[in-house]
Amino acid sequence: MNTIQPSFRDRLAQGLTPYLLLFPAIAIVAGVLGYAVVRGILMSFYQIEVWEPGQPFVGLRNYRDLFGSDGFRNSLVISLIFVGATIVIGVLMSLVHALALNQIRFARSLFRAIALIPYLVSGVATAVMWRFLFTGDNAIVTQISGALGYSTVSWLADPTKALMVITMANVWFIAPFSTLILLAGLQTIDPELYAAADIDGASAPQKFVHITVPSIVPMLSLALMWLSFASFNMFDIILPLTGGGPGRSTEVLAVYMYQLAFRDLNYSTGAAVMIVILIINIALSAVFLRAAGRAQHDK
Amino acid sequence: MTSETGIASKGTRFAAWTALVLLTIWAVLPILWSLSASFKTPLTLYSEGFIPENPTLDNYGRVLSSEGFYQYLGNSLYLAITSTVLTLFVSVLAAYGFARYAFAWRHVLLLFILVPRILPRASLIIPLYDVIARLDLLDTYTVLIVTYTATAVPMATWILIGFFQAVPRELEEAAAIDGASIWQRIWGIVVPISLPGMVTAGILSLREAWNEFPFVLAFTTSGDMRTLPFQLFAMRDNMGLTDWPLINAFTITTIIPILFLYLLFERQIVSGLTSGAVK
Q1: Nearest CA to B129 among A64, A27, A72, A43?
Q2: Nearest C-alpha of chain A: how many angstroms from B247?
Q3: Which domain holds residue B114?
Q4: In terms of domains, do B217 and B172 share one?
Q5: ipTM score here?
Q6: pLDDT of residue B44
Q7: Which InterPro entries has this protein been placed in (chain A) (predicted)?
């Protein structure tokens, strides 16, 4: 960038400049997040007792304990159901939402602005609002289901219904961002493709299957990626909404890990859960990046 | 054929509006129901419908005069603002480095910005708690500011790289010939031109810190250190009768500031988010 003859010192400074610029960011990210990951891996191989000195190396024992425990298997299953249901419902709702937003002309930016509002609300506030909808004999949903002749027992007292409630609250909370991603995808589609299809006499479903869907495959996989990451790691909604209960019916992995470490003070096994969560995250992103790459390739 | 297309598109439009109205109601209903309850009294909470018959601001008065409220509000504001300023400062430098220079290890270092996106916040609390407790730093602002900044820097840097790359190099070259240092060029030329990017990155970082829950839950024990979300969590489940009008007023109070900022800069945030997510 320097147009005047650079001296050796200038060249050295030039060579160091990018590293100096990057240093604070890398230092804080590596120092906090990188350190946490490395420390978590190490912790999972030791027996850490809070009130006792000395931390014997125990190899894979924490993992063996973990895979042998009912609580862990329960949480794995709950997480799978929670993530699976969120992905299916979330992707359908956000796709419909994005298609509708893309279709209308009148007040589109207003509706788009409203669509993203749940993304701004904190997880705790989301949980509290949903709790208010469902808790107690007089909660609005309980009243409505009673008026329709269904059970008037609080939804959050029933294991299956409680899982449905956290799934719905989760969809409410995280689907708006996927709507935004899909809308961005829809807006890149060339309108002439539809015009050409109209001339060929294509029906609306045909246009959807042959033009819309193929055009947004990359965005669709991005939306799926967001939905699965956000729900697999969801903690902020579940702890305040159900605390993992009733019983352990809504204890997803992140909540299980938290309870293990901070309620049972079993940090080592908690760290092992953390590593399992990280491995599943890495595997998920590998799968999605691969799928997205292949989709890109096929086009 | 034209008439056929006309009918189809009319049907499509009807379907689009129906879906849109339903989904818009779905998005705002929990908030509106909470808002409605925040204007009722415990006695009229369930007997009145959606529109309160005698709306009262009493609950908001009780929120503002509740014990420790200004302490929690102050904590939330202080943490959100300091971590956002720090995040922007650190991210501007890093984004400029990535946007303007080709250097060895660039791709490896870029991974430090990309990989943290798949590290869930809640999963980090166990090892971080362990080291923070050993360093005797539980219940300190420092720990929260540093951890909030560390989790916000990757996204902010990623957003800013895109904006900085769009700033024409010629502007900087002209300034360099006039003797402007790199520091002056970054803060005097690149940052002001990228103001929309700064606003987007700033508001996202504010939102992240304002709404943060796992870190403040795990790394603080004293009541004085609570933020608004933590206090909301603590009050949601008092044994005995739950004061729902008060809790709903508290919920709405925590939502209003970030919602206000969002509505003010909605266009920039949406385009910033879209480009940040899509790239």
Answers
A1: A43
A2: 8
A3: 67-278
A4: yes
A5: 0.90
A6: 78
A7: ABC_transporter_permease (IPR051393), MetI-like (IPR000515), MetI-like_sf (IPR035906)
